[in-house]
Specification:
The complex is a heterodimer of chains A (419) and B (287). Chain A has 20 helices and eleven strands. Chain A has 419 residues and is an alpha/beta fold. Chain A folds into two domains: 216 residues, D-Maltodextrin-Binding Protein, domain 2; 195 residues, D-Maltodextrin-Binding Protein, domain 2, CATH 3.40.190. Chain B is mostly helical and 287 residues long. Chain B has a single domain, classed as MetI-like fold (Orthogonal Bundle). A two-stranded antiparallel ribbon of chain B has the order 1-2. The relative contact order of chain B is 0.12.
């Protein structure tokens, strides 16, 4: 019974839950010949599975005898799935995930130099390579990146009588009120568990706040962060956001924006491909820098996902893993993934392939530009996983029933416990 | 000489591997420092327990678990008594109604919970649509975002999925009451109310006890309904101990603390079961 529940637990859809349980009990699929590897990929959208299936087919026909067993997992289940696999020693050979540092700390993953060729290693853009290091050694393989900018609906802005996107927080508030009067949701504010940490960081860093202080110590309860939440709380209480930000997930507001019901929000580069185009290709929207408290500087949040290669008992998987990773990082293959999913490239060669395709260049340019001095979540700190979890659960309550200073204090405690 | 081993061996082995070993493992984990990737980092003493009891959310979670269990089981039993009585009386189409009652049982709990989540959705939910069309509401209500409403809604779903089993246990109980007892009562001049209170309920007591205990354990351990509908949120405002211990492990990354919570959970269940055994034994003594 318990086991059954635990299986059900991970999956929110029955199908996923069932396949999950099946996989879990089929024990080690690594194979002893060292030519079969298991790859767990995150599901970015409906095209993800098709991309990997096709890529693996190409790989297997180019490398007879090698096999890749693919499992695609929805982001919503990813954390619990990965945790279960790692704790029960059923790690895949290759994992596509957004964290790597606690695996590196506990010596579970290969160094980057051991699983890709030097050519690939030098192909990673320095910004991302640096963020893939733990204590000076690169363990994570940069996979995709994303940048966040401010999206606004031009038609709604016109109806509400706003002539340009807001640059300061005061302007955001004023615009949100006007949009509400025009009969739309002023600001989309997703502080539900899916990506609350990103939404919070976007607002906090544009108020001079953030996760750590200047010396790199956790400073989640700093005054700038309290002020940030107080501001967001006020917007919520004035009802210019969608109802109940604390339970609204990012994909909910992205969908609402695509349907033309939300005036403005912190968007992401993949929003066009993943949300707007499938619903309404003619949606009249603009992209602007993220608003900041005083409007003088505008910081961007960068997000990077990784591939990591887990060590297996005798190291027999290393050759096959390396073959597959080198295959994926060939510029056409990597570029195709990035353009299929609407992300930004993390390698020079794939970036060049993409920028030669001028159709999309105009849309992607501001994101690429913003990325060069973007701030990232501290994924290279092993305590981040716990902080991330605590923020996702708690931060939203600060704009609902909770008190911002107290909520941040609780998260700070979690962070220090992990040190 | 070996015969008893032959008879008792398989069952003992089963209990040892399936029950005793996991319990030992759980207690051991709760006394261990476990890193976020699941590596053991040595003996932790009672640190996991002190951390757990220092969590500001724990009292609320425990209280909510009590409300959840008592509320769901009580409502389920009351409704099931009515349903069982209905199904026990003769009326045309009874067979169909009995079949229909099995449906919530046969369908997956997770699916039922998911369907309710969508029906209660703020933006697209059919419940808001219906109430607004009827003029009951002016604006949509975000049912699952308000802790009180969310808990009530989830308890509703929990009752819904518990009804079939409970009704059938009670129906079986009703059918085992001999008709002569009622006839005798009628001859003695007892009305329907007197008959129900004086004969049906006392004779139904064994079935009621079984239904109550099994429901308490099921509802206490219920995970999918809460997880699918609110994930215990906002914050921890609709968590019970079962979802809370999951979050401790998977969101807070503190496996040891989660194991400590599991031990506490186990203790609570054990207490309930002991009370039950006592209760049953006393009943056996009186009859």
């Amino acid at each position: 019974m318990k086991r059954h529940l635990a299986c059900l637990a991970g999956g929110l859809s029955l199908a996923l839950a069932l396949t999950g349980c099946g996989k879990g009990s089929s024990s080690d699929s690594g194979g002893s010949d060292g030519r079969t590897i298991r790859f767990v990929a995150a599901k970015y959208d409906d095209d993800t599975q098709a991309y990997w299936t096709a890529l693996i087919k190409d790989f297997e026909s180019a490398n007879p005898g090698y096999r890749v067993n693919l499992e695609v997992v929805d982001w919503e289940q990813m954390d619990s799935k990965v945790k279960t696999y790692v704790q029960t020693k059923q790690e895949p050979d290759i994992l596509n995930y957004n964290k790597f540092s606690d695996f590196a700390r506990d010596g579970l993953v290969h160094k980057a130099q051991d699983v890709v060729s030097p050519k690939v290693l030098t192909d990673f853009l320095p910004l991302f390579r640096q963020k893939a290091q733990y204590e000076g050694t690169q363990y994570g393989l940069p996979f995709i990146s994303s940048a966040r900018l401010f999206f606004y609906n031009k038609d709604i802005f016109a109806k509400a009588g706003i002539d340009r996107p807001p640059s300061t927080w005061a302007e955001v508030e004023a615009a949100a009120k006007k949009i509400k009067q025009a009969g739309y949701i002023g600001l989309g504010l997703p502080l539900g568990p899916e990506e609350a940490q990103a939404e919070f960081q976007i607002w906090a860093m544009n108020n001079g706040g953030g996760w750590t202080d200047a010396s790199g110590k956790w400073a989640i309860d700093q005054q700038a962060n309290v002020d940030t939440l107080t501001y967001l709380r006020k917007l919520t209480k004035d009802k210019v956001t969608q109802p109940n930000p604390e339970t609204t997930n990012r994909k909910d507001v992205f969908n609402q924006f695509a349907q033309g019901r939300i005036g403005m929000l912190n968007g992401a580069v993949f929003m066009r491909k993943g949300f707007i185009d499938p619903v309404d290709e003619k949606l009249n929207y603009g992209v602007a820098p993220l608003p900041s408290k005083d409007g003088s500087t505008h910081k961007t949040l960068g997000v990077q996902d990784y591939l990591v290669a887990f060590k297996k008992g005798d190291g027999s998987n290393k050759a096959a893993v390396k073959k597959f990773l080198d295959f994926f990082y060939q510029k056409e293959n990597a570029a195709e993934f990035v353009s299929t999913e609407g992300f930004l490239s993390v390698t020079k060669s794939a970036g060049e392939v993409l920028s030669s395709d001028s159709r999309d260049a105009a849309y992607y340019k501001p994101f690429v530009d913003a990325l060069s001095d973007a701030e990232f979540a501290p994924t290279d700190d092993p305590a981040w996983a716990a902080v991330d979890g605590a923020v996702k659960q708690r931060i939203g309550t600060a704009v609902a029933g909770g008190d911002p200073a107290k909520v941040l204090g609780e998260i700070q405690k979690t962070a220090q416990k992990g040190d | 000489m070996l015969e008893p081993v032959l008879w008792l061996g398989p069952a003992t082995l089963l209990i040892l591997t399936m029950v005793v070993w996991p319990v030992i493992e759980m207690i051991r984990t709760s006394l261990t420092r476990v890193s976020s990737t699941g590596q053991s980092q040595g003996f932790a003493g009672v640190r996991n327990y002190t951390d757990l009891f220092a969590q500001g959310d724990l009292p609320g979670v425990l209280l909510r678990t009590l409300v959840w269990v008592v509320g769901v089981v009580t409502v389920t039993l009351v409704l099931s008594l009515g349903l069982a009585a209905l199904l026990n009386s003769r009326f045309p189409g009874r067979r169909l109604v009995r079949w229909a009652l099995i449906v919530p049982w046969a369908s997956s709990v997770l699916m039922t919970a998911l369907i309710w989540r969508w029906m209660l959705n703020n933006f697209y939910g059919v419940v808001n649509r219906l109430l607004m069309d009827l003029g009951v509401l002016d604006a949509p209500v975000n049912w699952l975002a308000k802790p009180g409403l969310a808990l009530a809604a989830m308890m509703g779903v929990a009752v819904f999925v518990s009804l079939p089993f409970t009704s059938f246990v009670l129906l079986a109980g009703l059918q085992s009451i001999p008709a002569e007892v009622y006839e005798a009562a009628r001859v003695d001049g007892a009305g329907p109310v007197r008959g129900y209170l004086g004969i049906t309920l006392p004779l139904l007591r064994p079935s009621l006890v079984v239904a109550a205990i099994i429901n308490v354990i099921n509802v206490f351990n219920s995970f999918p309904i809460i997880w699918a509908m609110t994930r215990g949120g906002p914050g921890f405002a609709s968590d019970t101990t079962t979802t809370y211990l999951y979050k401790l492990a998977f969101d807070n990354q503190s496996v040891g603390e989660s194991a400590a919570m599991a031990v506490v959970n186990f203790g609570l269940i054990l207490a309930v079961v002991l009370v039950y055994l006592r209760f049953v034994r006393r009943q056996e003594d009186t009859t």
